[in-house]
Description:
With 453 residues, the chain is α/β, with parallel strands linked by helices. The protein has helices at 3-16, 23-39, 41-52, 56-82, 119-130, 144-153, 170-178, 190-201, 225-237, 254-272, 288-298, 348-356, 371-380, 415-421, 448-451, and strands at 85-86, 97-104, 107-111, 134-138, 183-187, 207-210, 216-219, 249-252, 302-305, 309-310, 315-316, 319-322, 339-344, 363-367, 385-388, 409-410, 423-430.
Amino acid sequence: MSRELLVVQRARKSFQTGKTKPLEYRIHQLKNLRRFISERQGDITEAVRRDLGKSENGTQLFETLGLEGEINLALEKLSEWAAPRMVEKNLLTISDEVYVQPEPLGVVLIIGAWNYPWAITLQPLVGAIAAGNAAVIKPSEVSSHSAKVMEELLPLYLDKDLYPVVTGGVSETQELLKQRFDHIFYTGGSAVGKIVMAAASCHLTPVTLELGGKSPCYIDKNCDIRVACRRITWGKFVNCGQTCIAPDFILCEPSVQSQVVEEIQKCIKEFYTDNPETFEDYGRIINQRHFKRLMALMEGSTVAVGGASDESQCYIAPTVLKDVTGDSKVMKEEIFGPLLPIITVSGVDEAIRFINEREKPLVIYVFSQDNKLIKRVIAETSSGALLANDCLVHFTVSALPFGGVGNSGMGCYHGRYGFDQLSHLRSCLIKQLKMEGVNSMRYPPHSAKKLGW
Ligand code: NAD
C-alpha cells in the first residue's frame, strides 16, 4: 500500500468520526495555525530566503501577513458562514422551513505552487479547516526548503491525521492524484492543471484550479504615466516577477513608449538601487531551469532597461523590453519572471482586440484617468479580475473572490468564497405533515376543473 494511500485513508477515517463538525474544533485548529505562523516566523523566513532569496520583511509582507488576516477573518466570521442561510420561498413552500446548510465536503487535496510557498499553500487550508474538511497538503517540491519546514513543523500544531503534509515531486503528486478526494484545490501552471482535472474526473471530484497566464497592462496615454509606472514597477518586479498576478506585458501607444521606459527605469533604480543584484529586497529566480527558460524568452527582443544576468546565482536584473510584437518569443507563454515587454498599439480599441484574441487572463490592468474607458475595458473583455490604476492589491481584499476564468482557472477563494468553495451548499426544505389540503392541486387527476382552468 502506498504512503499516499495510507495518508488519505487516515484522513478520511478521522474525518468520518465527525470530529471536524463542531465549530469549536475548527476554531481551535485555526488558532493553532495562527500560532504556528507567529511562533515559526523565523523558520518560515529562513526557508523562503533559501528558496527565493527573499528578505525577512518581504516574506512577512507577501506571505504571512495576508495569511494571518485570512485566519482572523475566518475566526471572526465562522459562525455566520456556517449558519443555515434562509432563502426566499415560493407559494408552494410558504409555510415551510427553507434554507441552505453549508456542510463539509470530506477530504480535500491542496496542491501548492512554489512562488509564494506559504501563502499559496496555506491560504486554501484556512478555507478547508473553516469548512470542516480534512485536508492533505502537498507543497511544491520546487520550493524545497519551505516544503521541508512545512512537513516538519506543521504537524506539531495541527491534527496530524486530518491535515497531513505530503512532500515529494511529480511522482508523489501523481500517486496522490490516483486517490479519491472530495475536492482538489490546485495552484500552478495550466499544463499541470489539465493533468489534475483529468485525474479528478476518474472519481468525479470537483476541482478548483488557480492557474496563471499572461495578464496584460494597458496604459492610456492620457493618464499620469509617472504614477502608473511606479505601481507597475512594483507589481511586476516584486518576487522577481514570479507572481501569478504580475502584469505580464504592457500595451501602450507608440507616442508614450519612451516615457514609460524612462519612468520604469527611474523606479527600478529607486526601489532596487543601481545594483539590484546585491540589494536585499530583490530576490532570485527559483532555479536554473526557470533561469534558462527566462533567458531564452528574451531572445530576439530589444532590451531597453536591465538585461544583466548571472546564471550561477539565478539572477536576472529587472528588465524592460521595447517594441515587442505579438508573435515574439516572450509573448508565447506566461513570463513569470522579471521581464517586462512593451507592445505598442494604436489605442484602446486595438488593446481590447489584442487581449480578446488571446486566452482569458488572470487579471487585466488598466491605467487611465478616464472612467468611461475603464468601464469599456471591463465591458468588452473577460478575465479573473480587473484592476484599474493599481497592481496586485485585489489579492488583499478578502471580500473579492480570487480566481481565474477560462485558461486562467476555475473556482475561487479568499474569505467567505474559500469557505463556500470547500463546502457543499446543501438545500434543505422541512415541511410539516399538516395542511394536506393545500397540496390537492398537485395530485392527479389534473382535471381542468380541479385546477380552476
Ligand atoms: P510547480 O512546478 O510547483 O507545480 C505545482 C504543483 O504541481 C506542485 O505541487 C507539483 O508537485 C505539481 N506537479 C508538477 N508537475 C506535475 C505533473 N506532471 N503531474 C502532477 N503534478 C505535478 O508550479 P508551477 O506550475 O511552476 O507554478 C507556476 C504557475 O502557477 C504559474 O503559471 C503561475 O501563474 C501559477 N500560479 C497561480 C496562482 C494563482 O493563484 N492563480 C498562484 C501562484 C502561481
